[in-house]
TrEMBL record:
Organism (species): Pagothenia borchgrevinki
Name under which the protein is recorded: Glycolipid transfer protein domain-containing protein
Domain Glycolipid transfer protein: 26-174
Single biological process term from Gene Ontology: negative regulation of interleukin-1 beta production
Record-stated family: Belongs to the GLTP family.
Lineage of producing organism: Eukaryota, Metazoa, Chordata, Craniata, Vertebrata
Length: 212
C-alpha cells in the first residue's frame, strides 16, 4: 500500500471488513482506519494530535489481535463475546500483549464514534452542503464532541478551521477530479454507514456504548 491517501482504498477495506453474515473483521477494519490516518497526516501538523490518538488506538487493537488471545479478535463480534465472557470489557489484564487495563471494546468504541463523525462530514461534503471546515465542525458537534472534554473540543475546532476549501479537499482524496471524487465519496458514505450501524447495534445490544 502506498503512503498516499486513497479514498478508494479506504472504501475497499471497510467493504472487505463486512462478512456475508454482517460480521466485521478486525484486520480490515484496522486497515480502513490506517488509510484514514494517511488522510489525517496529509492535512498537516494541526491534525497531528488527532492522528496520534487514532494510531495509538489502532496499535492497541493490533497488539490484541497479534497477542496470545488474537483469535478472539478476528471480528468485532468475537471480540465483544470474548471480552464480555472473560470480564475484560472494563479494562482487564492482557499482560502478554502489553495492553494492561485497556480493553479492545473500549478502544474500538472511540474509533466507532469517530467513524460517525467521518460519515456525517463526508456525507455533507458529497452533497455540497457547505465548506469542509464548516461541515467538519458541524459533524463533530453532532457526534464526537459530546464525548470530549473542552480542551480537545477547542483544539479540534482550531484544526478544522485549517481544512482546505472544497475543491482542494476533494483533490486530496485522490479519487480523480472533483466531480469524480464526489461520486466516489457518495459511494463511501453508505459503506461507512453500514459498518457504523452494525457496530452500533452490537454495542447497544450488549450495553457497551458508554464504556469508560
Ligand atoms: C478529516 C478526517 C477525519 C477522520 C478521522 C477522525 C478521527 C477522530 C479522532 C479524534 C481524536 C481527538 C483527540 C483524541 C481524543 C481522545 O481523548 C479520544 N479519542 C477519540 C478517538 O475520540 C478519547 O480516547 P480516550 O482518551 O478515552 O482513550
Amino acid at each position: 500500500m502506498s503512503e498516499e491517501f486513497s479514498l478508494q482504498e479506504v472504501i475497499d477495506s471497510f467493504k472487505l471488513s463486512l462478512s456475508d453474515s454482517k460480521e466485521i473483521f478486525m484486520d480490515q477494519y484496522v486497515e480502513g482506519w490506517r488509510g484514514l490516518v494517511k488522510l489525517l497526516n496529509s492535512l498537516g501538523s494541526v491534525f497531528g494530535f488527532i492522528s496520534k490518538d487514532v494510531v495509538n488506538k489502532l496499535s492497541i487493537l493490533v497488539s490484541l489481535r497479534g497477542g496470545p488471545e488474537g483469535a478472539h479478535y478476528l471480528s468485532l463480534q468475537s471480540m465483544v463475546q470474548y471480552e464480555l465472557q472473560s470480564g475484560l470489557v472494563e479494562g482487564g489484564d492482557h499482560p502478554a500483549s502489553g495492553t494492561r487495563g485497556v480493553s479492545g471494546c473500549r478502544t474500538l468504541l472511540r474509533l466507532h464514534r469517530a467513524l460517525r463523525w467521518l460519515q456525517l462530514f463526508l456525507g455533507g461534503v458529497s452533497r455540497d452542503e457547505g465548506t469542509p471546515p464548516t461541515l467538519c465542525s458541524l459533524a463533530y458537534s453532532q457526534s464526537l464532541s459530546q464525548h470530549h472534554p473542552w480542551v480537545i473540543r477547542s483544539a479540534a475546532g482550531l484544526a478544522f478551521r485549517m481544512l482546505p476549501p472544497r475543491d482542494p479537499f476533494l483533490r486530496m482524496l485522490n479519487a480523480g477530479e472533483p466531480p469524480q471524487a464526489v461520486e466516489v465519496l457518495g459511494g463511501a458514505v453508505p459503506v461507512l454507514g453500514e459498518v457504523y450501524t452494525i457496530t452500533e447495534e452490537l454495542y447497544s445490544k450488549h450495553d457497551l456504548l458508554n464504556l469508560p
